[in-house]
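Q: Entry one of two.
A:
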Amino acid sequence: VQLQASGGGLVQPGGSLRLSCAASGSILSINVMGWYRQAPGKQRELVASISSGGVTAYGDSVKGRFTISRDNAKNTVYLQMNSLKPEDTAVYYCNAHITESIFRSESYWGRGTQVTVSS
C-alpha cells in the first residue's frame, strides 16, 4: 500500500492551495483518512480527519479555513486550504487507516508535501 500526496507549494498569505493524497495497492477498505503537519522544531499535529462516512474533525488553528473531503471510489483524500497564513507553513503528511484483509489493518503515511506561505 502506498499513499501519494501532491499539491504543495509556495503561496502568498491569504492564498489557497489544494492537497490531494491517493492510496493505492491491496486495499479492502479505508477507515479514517487525515492530514497532519509538522513545522520546523515542532511536533507533528493533526490538521483534519475524515471517516469513511464523512464525519470530519479539524485542528483548532485551521477551523473555518481548511476543508477536508474524500472520494471513496478513488481512495483519495483532499485538503482545501484557504486564507493561508505564514504559520501554516509546514510539511503536510497524509495518513490513512487501511484494511488490506481480514487479518491486516494498518496506519499508513505519505511522504509529505511542503507548504510554504510567504510574501
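Q: Entry two of two.
A:
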Amino acid sequence: QVQLVESGGGLVQAGGSLRLSCAASGRTFSNKAMGWIRQAPGKEREFVAGINWSGTSTYYPDSVKGRFTISKDNNKNAMYLEMNNLKPEDTAVYYCAGDGWGEAWNYWGQGTQVTVSS
C-alpha cells in the first residue's frame, strides 16, 4: 500500500517559516515527480511547488516564488517544502503528491494544516 505522510504543519505568525516533510512508503518515488498542492477553505486547489524526479527542475507559481523551496531526497524517499516569509493568505491544507504534475497526481497524502496569523 502506497502512503504519503505529511508533517510539519502548524500555526505561525506572518513573516515566519515552516518546513513541511513528506515521507513516502510502499513504492519508490525516486523516478517520479512530486509536488505540493494546497487548498484553502472556499478556494480552489493551488499547485504551489513541483519537482522533477531527479530534483534538477522545479516549478513555483508567482504567489509563492522566492518564498517557498521544494526539495527531494531520493535516498530517503522523501520530499520537503521550505516556506519562508509566510503570509496569512498561505493558510491552507497542504497536500503532498507523487507521480503526476499540476493537480493531476496518482498518489496523495492526507494533508497537513498550515495557519498563518496576521
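A: Comment on entry two: The two ends are 40 Å apart (CA to CA). The longest strand covers residues 92-101.
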